[in-house]
Specification:
Layout lengths: L2 H19 L6 H8 L3 H7 L3 H25 L6 H12 L4 H17 L3 H27 L9 H20 L5 H15 L7
């Protein structure tokens, strides 16, 4: 295992600790135990808990992107609507990987309210997601796939933050994953034109 692989393995251990015991349980010692390595090994790759958590936050983004690519790979020639829905599905805790990422993200939000470095990383992530969301709807509009009267930039923001707002209700059982995805589909039905009959 090379250095980057070891750092990613430690990040995965961070996720497992947060998911099972919460952010308060994250220490270099607990993460080392979860990863099955010595505390010295963790300290070799991360000088502090904060450095380890910031790396884990970046790894979570990379992991979600990899899941998004896998989701799209299952669609032979995805439409713009299918791409947007796939992105929403990856962001929502509708499977075990998504649930773990949602638990971890929630922990990072609470940390970000008192830690400027974490807040900056999350703001950067939101800015990137919002940019991609807007670009996707603009491209769909240029292709004639968006319904009349839709302001793509505003709709992209509303859709992104609606999806984010569904995460908590799924995690605590207010909504099932299927109910949340039905709400996403309801919004997509409003934004995208219905396909012409063949």
């Amino acid at each position: 295992m090379d250095r980057d692989e070891r750092r990613r393995a430690i990040a995965e251990a961070v996720f497992e600790v947060i998911e099972s015991r919460g952010l308060a349980a994250v220490s270099l010692r607990d993460v080392a135990a979860q990863a099955g390595v010595s505390m010295g090994s963790v300290q070799h790759y991360f000088q502090s808990k904060d450095e380890m958590l910031l790396f884990a936050l970046g790894h979570m983004r990379d992991r979600a992107l990899a899941r998004m690519r896998a989701e799209l790979a299952r669609l032979p020639e995805p439409t713009s609507r299918q791409v947007v829905r796939a992105a929403a599905r990856v962001m929502l805790p509708v499977d075990q990987a998504g649930r773990q990422e949602a638990c971890v993200a929630g922990a990072f939000y609470s940390l970000a309210t008192v830690n400027p470095a974490h807040a900056a990383a999350l703001r950067e992530g939101y800015a990137r997601l919002l940019s991609v969301s807007r670009q996707s709807l603009r491209a769909a509009a240029q292709a004639g796939e968006i319904a009349d009267g839709i302001a793509t930039d505003s709709e992209a923001a509303m859709l992104l933050f609606m999806v984010q707002g569904l995460i908590g209700p799924i995690l605590i059982g207010v909504l099932s994953p299927q109910e949340a995805l039905a709400l996403v589909d309801h919004q997509l039905d409003r934004i995208f034109r219905k396909p012409s009959p063949a």
